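Appendix B, Record 12. Input sequence as logged:
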Amino acid sequence: MSDRAAVALALAVCAGAWWSGAVPLMPAVAVVAVALLIRRPLLLVAGAALLAGALGHRAWDGVTPPASARTVAREVVLLSDPVDVGGALRLEVGITGRRVEAWARGTSAAALRPRLTGERVVVEGRLRPPPPEARRRLALRHVGARMDIEHVGPWQPGSAASRLANGLRRTLVHGAAPLERDQRALLTGFVLGDDRDQSVAVADDFRAAGLTHLLAVSGQNVAFVLVLCRPVLCRLGLRARWAASVAVIGFFGLLTRWEPSVLRASAMAALAVTAVGLGRPASPRRLLALAVAGVVLLDPLLVHSMSFRLSVGASAGILLLAPALARRLPGPRWLAEALAVTSAAQVGVAPVLVPVFGGLPVASIPANLLAVPAAGPLTAWGLTAGMVAGVVGPPADAVLHLPTSLLVGWVAGVARWGAALPLGQIELDHLAAAAALVVATVLACRRCVRFALPVGVAAVTFAVLAPALFPPGGALSEAAPAPGARLWRSDATVLVLDHAGDGRLLAGLRRHAVVRLDTVIATRGTKDQATTVALLRSRVDVGTVLAPEGHVIRDALVPPEGTLDVGGVRVVVTATSPTLQAQVQVRPSP
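Logged structural output:
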């Protein structure tokens, strides 16, 4: 199969999975079988699209919610690691072949918090259909029901592979004890793709700097594990080496919880070692296309996964654009190659990020140039030295993690710096203008192919500089930067917090180019709002904080009832107990 045929196959499979039509399964399988037998690529592409549609339809049917709520008391297997969400513990469990999103609080949460994927626990709780507004979101993870856990009984460690994987994870986390909390959370993100313990501020920094891909397992992680096992693999025969390599890839997937990006990277690695074992090495483009087609056929709902699409887009951008860019960019080779890979990856993910999230941070280009060179050594050292540190314990663990601390500190510092850069985002209109410029110039100069690269570079440069050169204009009078928050601005800026915020609040303020909050009104003054105010103070310049009587917010003031003028914004306080009630309006200009 040629590279073009492989790409067509992947596109057809993804289109069929997105469609998920009610196609009879066996006829679709028959078409694929005949196409493989007579070696007809076009027929194979058509049959694969039908097969993906049939499998997608069956996948949607498999997440039908239960008819009614009922009490369940039985042993379940954990299908995800527990994560704290809003004062409760969320995890996914398997019950009689059904994937269930389970929630636990209080003593039940405390009992489940140390457990990991693959372990078995006896639980008692109420199984119920998910709310209508959450059904599609949960169905994309093959979840068709929710469970409120009321009691937790004894637990068992699970299969031998799960015990080994969980033991290694616990060893790595134990060895990282000398690191600060944020550094420890970033280490598990770099090595295992585990982002459960990352603080809101750190996660927002990486998101704003376009560095979140560093905290997801990629092909680089898989390649490093294979290199680490190479001394043993090289001593085996050809068939045994292939089997051992595939087993290593599979175990690493189990260790990193088979996240969508892990599936893509593992599938590519497995295909690569298989091709080498057969003496028929394939191009990276073909490996990527076949890997995408294979994993989507295994799980058609992956086409709706944002992380899967980002992983595929970044890989495709690097494979298609990076070599040509690296050859043509001036300057030292190391800088040209790094800039080419970074730019190609950003181009690859732009069609996914921009329509969904509204833009691609311009800061991601310089941030990736500075952070990516440290990510590889950090992953390699963090995995190997981290395991040793977990075995030997103190005081050697602190010494072993000195390089880890320096590398994590560097990458986190780059993320914080990149998030603070006032460069804006490349939005859909910028991309559309750049694409129109490229198409128009190429059509006008079809006989002058040598102008294609300069025009492309000019278009990309325009897209990158446009957010900074042409920032959003117009005065903002009122907006909602995040759920539970309202923003007013004229020559002063006032933020009203009705609920506790999270990373969406910081992203919303950044989207509205807010660098200073003259007044923050915390209507409840609770511990959660105190945490939100502290988060705001760590990321933007915060002036006065107003809160109700009995608040727990540091340095906040209880305002008198009446009218307060904050620049061009008027605040009318009508009550200060039990909550702070205020009406905010932008005063008309004189």
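The first strand starts at residue 70 and ends at 78.
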